[in-house]
Every structure is written in C-alpha cells, then in structure tokens.
Amino acid sequence: MGNSMEKRYCLRLPTSIDIKYYSGRDEHRGVITNISLNGMCIKTDIQCPPDEELEVVIPAYNEEIKVPAKVHRPEEDDRECMGLEVTESPEGYVRFVDTLFFYYSIV
C-alpha cells in the first residue's frame, strides 16, 4: 500500500522537454521527463527539498507557460529527478498537456 505508484491518480506521459525553473530568485535548468495535468518529473542537477515551491517555465506556442509547482518528493530510483505537484494549472498549461496527450494518442 505504500507504493508511490498507487498514490498516482493521473496518467503521466513520457517527454523530454527542456525547461527552466525558479527556486526563490535562483534560475535553474532541467528536462521534464514525464508530465500530467497534476504533476511532472524534472531531471536536474539541483535537488530542492520536499514542499519547496517552484515556478516551472515551459517554452510552448511561442511563449513561456509559467506553472506554479511544489516539490512532492525526490525520485527514489533516480537521484537526478524531482517529482513535482502542479499547484495551479494555468490555461496554457492545460492546453499544452492536452495537446501532448492528443498527439501521443494518434502516433
């Protein structure tokens, strides 16, 4: 019952999207390795502590989508990855994720 996969209630799509994110005023770079409407996993050299609030900036549609997120946990099987919970879903983020899932469903 303590399995982290059992706690997930939203399908995640594997990706490789270069992003930047902000922890306080510090800018960092990373790659989204999987994404859903409720969260994402970011591969990065910098690990943030659980519950830290971040702003993830995703380049899409010739703009930057700013997504507020909270560090949910470091990924247990990959120390370079952080699991993030999306705390607010801007319209652009919802559209972006929906588009990825649609594209993935037809290929």
List the helices and strands and how they pair.
Layout: H1 4-7, E1 13-23, E2 26-35, E3 39-43, E4 53-60, E5 63-74, E6 81-86, H2 91-106
Antiparallel strand pairs: 1-2, 1-4, 2-3, 3-6, 4-5, 5-6
Provide keyphrases for this structure.
Thrombin, subunit H, 2 helices, disordered N terminus, alpha+beta, 107 residues, six-stranded antiparallel β-barrel
Poorly predicted residue ranges: 1-8
How is the largest sheet built, in terms of strand order? 1-2-3-6-5-4
| CATH third-tier fold name | Thrombin, subunit H
SS field, number of helical segments: 2
User: What is the chain-wise order of helices and strands?
Assistant: HEEEEEEH
Q: What is the correct CATH architecture?
A: Beta Barrel
* Overall pLDDT metric: 86
* Annotation, overall tally of beta strands: 6
Span between termini: 34 Å
CATH superfamily: predicted glycosyltransferase like domains
**Total domain count:** 1
Using the alpha-carbon principal axes, give the shape: globular
Q: Sheet bearing the most strands, described?
A: 6 strands, antiparallel, barrel
CATH class: Mainly Beta
Structural class by SSE content: alpha+beta
Q: Specify Rg, calculated over alpha carbons.
A: 13 Å
Helix fraction, binned, reads 10-25%
Describe this structure in words.
The chain is 19% helix and 49% strand. With 107 residues, the chain is α+β, with helices and mostly antiparallel strands. It has a single domain (4-106), classed as Thrombin, subunit H (Beta Barrel). A hairpin with a 3-residue loop joins strand 2 (26-35) and strand 3. The chain is globular and about 35 Å long. Mean pLDDT is 86; it is low at 1-8.
